[in-house]
Amino acid sequence: MTAIELARFTVSPEAEEAMVEGRPSMIRALRARFPGCLAAYLTKEDDGSWLDVVVWRDRTEALEAARTAPSIPECAAWFQHIATSGGLRHVDVVHSWPPATES
C-alpha cells in the first residue's frame, strides 16, 4: 500500500535558499538508496514553516528510509538546514485520484 511521509519543520530565513538549492541532490541520493521513493514535494506554509511530503511505494520502505536517511551524506547535509522539527509521520493511502502508480 502506498504511504505518504509528512515532515513539518522550520528553517531560518538565511538558510532557506541553500535548503531549496540542496534539495535536488538530497532527493537523488535518497532515491538511489530507496527506489520506493516515488515523489517528493517541498511546500511552504502560510506561517513560514515547511512541510515535506514524500510518496513511498509502501510504509516499510518509508520507515526504513526515515531510520537510515541521516546516514546518507546528502541527506545529513540537507537536514542541517532544519532549525526546528515539527515531527515526522506516515500515513497509508487508502484511495487516490489519479490512482497511485509505481515508478
UniProtKB/TrEMBL annotation:
Keywords: Monooxygenase, Oxidoreductase. Residues 4-72 form the ABM domain. Gene3D superfamilies: 3.30.70.100. InterPro entries: ABM_dom, Dimeric_a/b-barrel. One of its GO terms (molecular function) is monooxygenase activity. This is Antibiotic biosynthesis monooxygenase. It comes from Stackebrandtia endophytica.
